[in-house]
Amino acid sequence: MEKSASYSNDIPDDSEFSHTRSFWRTAMGNSQELRDKAIELTVTSNEFQYGYQWEWCGVPIIRHPDDIVLQQEIMWSLKPSHVIETGVARGGSLALSSSLMQIAGHQSKVLGLDIQILPHAIEALKPWTLDGRIELLESDSTSSIAINATKDFLGNIQTQALLVLDSNHSHEHVLNELQTLASLLPVGSIVIVADTIVEEMPEVYYPNRPWGRGNNPLTAVKKFLNLNSDFQLDLRWTRRSLMGECRDGILIKVK
Length: 255
Description:
By secondary structure, the protein is of the alpha/beta class. The chain is 39% helix and 15% strand. The chain has a single domain, classed as Rossmann fold (3-Layer(aba) Sandwich), CATH 3.40.50. Strand 1 and strand 2 form a beta hairpin.
């Protein structure tokens, strides 16, 4: 008896699915029409503070869901032994990094740097800080104190680390962070530079901030890459998020 057609006959195998998905990702990342619509949606959703509505493990996280999932993909692939983050905010991003490290099979070693760490964040992170999974340091992320603390935190590791820059978004500050902190990372490490999206937002969108078009994390990334051949854009991740805030802002240390 002839077998009837099976549902699974129309499902691509892993190789075909991987190839097709790679095509989708590249096409989506290169679509300016889709990106323009994503920026338009971002502007509209900001009227409701969409990026402030989420939590990770019960801690508020000021991230878009696309970028939360993207960091999971990066950390699962990289499996960093250490994570350094500048900008603590309400603490959710540190909780995200800590839990993802543990999921990937590493002991949590996360360092959070911020010029001011507020009481609500300290309280929210107590389950992680009390047992040493997360360390907090109140300091300007480009100060000698922060640089020395990062050196001590990394020690003499030979494994890859992850650096997330999400503090002051001015060109000068982000460039200083890249020149001081990123240089401390081992080869193969990844840097996620947040809010490169500022360059794509409408003119005068941030009237009360010391950053905007022409003066933001993306301009700092471009300058840094022009000055430093040790890093390059990591094309696996730079345009993976649709409503993401770090487009063209993910770097890998290559030498």
